[in-house]
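User: Okay, second chain of the day. Same drill as before: sequence in, C-alpha cells out.
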Amino acid sequence: MMSIASEWKRNVDIDLLRHKRVARVREMMERFELDAIVAFEYANGRYLAGLRPLYAPNFLVRQAAVITSGSEDVICFVHQDDTPHRKKTMYWLPSDHVREFPTGTMLEGGGADAMAPIGDALRELGFAGGRVGVDIGTTGSLRNLEALLVGSTVVDANACLNAARAVKFPEEVELLRMASAVVDAALQVAVNCVEPGIRECEILAEVMRVFYRHGAEVPQCNLIVCTGDNTAPMQRFAGETMVRPGDIVFMDIGACFNGMFSEATRTVICGEPNPMQRSIYQLVHTLHEAVIGALRPGVTGTDLQKVAQEVLNGSEFGIFVQKMVIAHGIGVGYAEPPFISPPGKSTPTFVVEEGTVVAVVPTVVVEGVQGGGGVRLEDVVAVGADGAERLTRFPYDKKLLA
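Assistant: Same drill. C-alpha cells below.
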C-alpha cells in the first residue's frame, strides 16, 4: 500500500519549491543587508539546501548551508559519515557542493582552522567580506567563524530567515495538507485506543506505528499522551499511567513528512465526563474556534490576543490558560515564528498574510478536577485570501461538547 506521504508528494514539484525558497532567501538577504548566510539550524538547512537533517536529541552543530549574495548556488555541509550517501542522492546540488562538515575538530576545539571549509565555500560563492548572518551555534563555533572571517561582521540571520519562511508557497501548503492527513489518521487510531487499562505509552506506540508507516522522518517533539491527574499539572510525555473510567485523555502528536511538520491535539473522555470537565473543554473549544475564525490577512498578533481575551473574560477558568502560546507558526520547523502569546503577555509585532500557516493551540489546565482538568485542542491552519483553512480535521469529542 502506498503511503499518504508518497501519494501526495507526487502532486508537488519539489524541485520548483527548492528554487523558490532559495530565491526568496536571496530577496530577504538584500532587505536585511546580508552578504552571506551560514545556517547551522536544521530547518534552515532544509529550506536553503533541501538537506534532510540527521536529528539528534542534543545540541550538536554538525551541518551547514552556505549562501551568498554573489552566487545563486548553495553549498551544504553534512555529517562526515553521511557525505557519500548525500552526494549520490542530493541530485539538485552539484556533487562537489555537498561536503563533509568538520564536526570532530569543532567539538575538540580546533580553533579557526576548524571552520576553514566554510570559509572556502564562502569564497567560492563570491564572498569577499561584509555581513555574514548566522542562525545558531556554540560559543566556540561562533568565535571560530569570527576569527576566520577577519574584516567581516558576524550577525544574527534569524530575522532574515524567519521572514523568508513565514509565508508559505502553495507547494508548501500542499505538503502540509499531506502531513496533516497523516496526523488525522494517527489521531483516529489514538482515539480508538482509549479504554480503561491502556497505558499512555501504549497509545503513543500506536500513533508512532501510523507515522512511520506513512514515511515520517521524525516526531514533532517529545509527543504528549497524558491521562487523568497527569493532565494538570500537564505531563509533557507519555508515561506508564493507565487510563481509568472518567479520565480526560490529552494527546498532542505530530511529525515531519517530506520536510514539513504538522501536528494536532485532541482531548477526549474515557467514559462519561463530569460537569467541570465539560466546562473546561467547552471554554477551550470556544477559544479555539474564535482564534481560527479571526485568522485572515491583515490581522495582527495583538488582534488575536484581544479575540482570546474576550472569550476568557467570560469564564471562571479563564485564569488557567497555559502561559506558553495560543498559536505558533509551523512548517520546515516544528514550531517557528510567529509565536502568539496568551492575552496579557507581550507578543511580537506580526501581521497575518495570505500563506501564513499557524498551529492554533489554546490550553487550559485546572488542577484538582476529578478525572483530570487539563485540556488542549490544536489544529494547523493555513490562511488564504478568504480566511482560514483547517489542514488538520479530526473531529472534537462530542461527549465533552454536549
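The first strand starts at residue 36 and ends at 39.

User: Thanks, on to the next one.
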